[in-house]
Amino acid sequence: MAALATLLGAVGLKLPDPWTFGLVAGALACGISALPSAKARPGLRPLHVLLTVHFSVLSRVFFRADDLTLARAMARKVIEWDGLGVRDRLFEIQGLRTWLKQFPALAWAEPLAGYGILILLVGGFALHYVPQSALATIRDRLLPKVPAVVIGMSFAVLLGVTSLLLSGPRANIYFAF
Predict the structure, then answer these.
(1) Please, are residues 160 and 99 in contact by the beta-carbon 8 Å criterion?
(2) What pLDDT was estimated at residue 4?
(3) Burial class of residue 99 in the structure, from the number of CB atoms within 10 Å of its CB (0-12 exposed, 13-18 middle, 19+ buried)
């Protein structure tokens, strides 16, 4: 496994130090394969979710890139730490701040506009840890009591945020087909 990862680092990603990449990737692969299933040990479920999310995000680099050279450069940026930390406006939903300025009643939410994507990511990730029984309770007991107007407004806000997300520099690849 480590040899295959070293070859990927040297040839595929053209890393300056493919041996370290290969050893780390090989050790991770061996560690992941040795993990017991989440059904056998429910306490390991967060680790399984974390690994799945990271694998999924890294694999989407190849969908986002226009060609293999760009995918290679993007993958290198993901795995190489440059020490600069989080960039300005990294979590900002483009256009959300401008849209919120049109509605004075929503002025309180403008500072949150810079963290819109982070809020969505953390909320979606946290949803994985909500027990199925709690979700079933919400669906069966609480949702029928919510007025239709509130549900309609929620869908309208969701549609608005989705349209803002899709108006960014490049829409999701699945909309191109």
Answers:
(1) yes
(2) 62
(3) middle
